[in-house]
Amino acid sequence: MKRQHEQRWAVTTSFSETLRNATWADHQSAESEGYLSALMGGRLSEHDYGEMVAQHYFAYTALDTVSRRLADHPVAGRFVFPELYREPALERDLATIYGPSWRDRIAPSKSTSTLVARIHQVSDWPGGYVAHHYTRYLGDLSGGQFIRMELQKIYGYAKGGGVDFYFFDELGSLPRFKNEYRSRLDVLGLELDEREQQRMIGEVKLAYQLNTEVLTELRHVVKAAA
């Protein structure tokens, strides 16, 4: 009697799913921070909201600067989309919130300075750059859209300043773009060995942590507003 062999079906998970699953707890932690809860609850002034916009400005200036430098890189360049650059939008938002002298009103927090330093530190490692790019932009294109709608209700902003950071009109369909982005992540995952995949997953988790610390440091705004 022939020995029967059980067929084993391999269950594969795409690299984009692996990244998402590996950081899901971190993602939830970032969303539950006190500052963001107070902001979404309409308990902060327009200038209190500007505190977060200012930190975004310094972080995205770094990210967009690195993106421009890596535009022709054979790996990192696949994730460089000029349509995503946020500096001009953030400048309009800050001018709306603080007026024409907005540059004199803002400064990077300690946590933001740490995040900016890390973005520059890993800029010569494609996986590191993509880790920070993915962490910020996929969040902006997903949960960030809910934040925009709530901020528009709370502060009455329209296009032209205040929440322009969250508008990505040049991308067209956001779901289609996000699917394309995830497809590029999946291709990248196939090109990486297991060690490099784990290294990149670790950097994504670190990126979430650093961004969460920026929100944590903004808790002083909530205390002052109480």
TrEMBL record:
Keywords: Heme, Iron, Metal-binding, Oxidoreductase. Pfam families: Heme_oxygenase. It is an enzyme of class 1 (oxidoreductase). Heme b binds at residues 20, 27, 134, 182. GO terms for biological process: heme catabolic process; heme oxidation; response to oxidative stress. GO terms for molecular function: heme binding; heme oxygenase (decyclizing) activity; metal ion binding. InterPro entries: Haem_Oase, Haem_Oase-like, Haem_Oase-like_multi-hlx. Its EC number is 1.14.14.18. This is Heme oxygenase. The lineage of its organism: Bacteria, Bacillati, Actinomycetota, Actinomycetes, Streptosporangiales.
